[in-house]
Amino acid sequence: MGSVKSNIGHTSAAAGVAGVIKMVLAMRHGVLPRTLHVDAPSPHVEWQAGRVELLTQARPWVVGGRPRRAGVSSFGISGTNAHVILEEAPRGEIEEAPRGGDVMVPSVVPILVSARSEQALRAQEARLRAFLPGRDLLDVAFSAATTRAHLECRVALVGGERFAGRPVVGKTAVLFTGQGSQRARMGAGLTYPLFRRVFDEVCGHFDPEVREALVCADGSGLDDTRVTQAALFAVEVALFRLVESFGVRPDFLLGHSIGELVAAHVAGVLSLADACALVAARGRLMGALPAGGGMLAVQASEDEVSGVAVAAVNGPNAVVVSGSLEELREFQARWPDRKTTWLAVSHAFHSPLMEPMLEEFERVARGVDFRSPRIPIVSNVTGGVVGDEVTDPAYWVRHVREAVRFHDGVRTLREQGVTRFLELGPDAVLTAMARSFLDDDVVLAAALRAKQPEPHAFAAFLAQAHNAGVPVDWAAVLAGGKRI
Question: How far is it, in rounded angstroms, from Cα 242 to Cα 262?
């Protein structure tokens, strides 16, 4: 028996947790630590009557035939008492944390600076820039992020770029990109071990051609919707697990078309196996439909559009229409004064041309297990927050056929108090859409950008999220660094 009070004195409200920390460390190091400053045992305890003795000298706490256990008591000054029993974790059943050469050293790191005023921030930044030459940037970044206070005026230096910002009050939403954002070797530049493990695990549920298309230098194969949807799903799930490991916890999720299936999986609606089965069936059945349809983006409001199926409402004046090429050409001719853009797609998604696949897709959807979402999801189908609706296979059938109501979804997020929008996908597609109609008092950041090296884009993304007030576990992000 011992007491942490002999080491650090009265700990008031922290009395219990200090004892827990002490015994967890004792298990980790295999040593029972001695109690300091013991002159003689208390005469009010019958020491000889039980098998209890004071730890006046440290002794080894070896692993034996049964788990090591410790009882920790907290005796608060107010008279509140608590007791907890700790038991060591089962050996050989947990994955050891990476250390040494297994720790990934980022090639680009954000160096954080903050102050209470803009004038003080400029002075801090100037001192930092004078300090940097000849220094190990990872160690500087680690020290700046983990040993300094994060004040309200913030700057992050990322590979020669400067990102300034302030924390904004509000909630955080994660957005998952849909088809059209795919590109050659998306995700290949992120060498974080966790990202690669999750990516490999997801790809293992799909045909080998998905991975082959992603590693191919020219991206050949990614235009096949069977491959595109699976590839986007794999990259975005791996991105979410990576940012989740860095402490980012969203309040809401919003996907765009296939991106909503990513949201459903990470929210716990679908297991990985079931989500992949649904994604694979969705892409396979869509790809098997006769070719010949198309999609056209038009600078118009939903109310202005008639005579053709609306596939997506991406903004107050940004609509995508879908259907046969003949009807779309006829529609385009009626809009000579508006900007129109043909999308590079193989089929007319979210249109009546999808209807021949819906019955078979529903049969597949009825064969998977659904659960209530653990993180609120904003629906493409309704534009509002959904609950157990997403556990009905019929919902996902509607999701294939009906318009993607992205504009309504973003407005719902704003009504729910979201001020920080973080896009996870191969490019900043949704970020650009949302920025076109959101006010300047919100922050939008994209994890990857098509025209930037991925390590740089991702480091900048974390820096922008941090500047906006999103909690980031910098000790995990910069785990290879050391304090200077």
Answer: 14
